Amino acid sequence: MVQKIRTFVIDNYLFGEEGKLRNDDSFMESGIIDSTGILELVRFLEATFGVKISDEELIPDNLDSIEKIAAFLQRKLPASAAVGGAPSLQPAQR
Amino acid sequence: MRTRSTISADILRLDPAAETERITAWIRETVSHNLRRRGAVIGVSGGIDSSVVAFLCARALGSERIQILFTPEADSSPDSLRLGRMVADALKAKSALEDISAILKGARCYERRDDSVRLVVPEYGDGYKCKIVLPGLLDASRYSIFSVVVQSPDGQTRKIRLTPEAYLGIVAATNFKQRARKMMEYYYADLLQYAVAGTPNRLEYDQGFFVKNGDGAADFKPIAHLYKSQVYQLAAYLGVPEEIRRRPPTTDTYSLEQSQEEFYFTLPLEKMDLCLYGKDRGIPPADLVAAAGMEEDLVERVYAMIDSKRKVAKYLHAHSLVVE
Question: What's the predicted TM-score (pTM) here?
Answer without folding.
Answer: 0.87
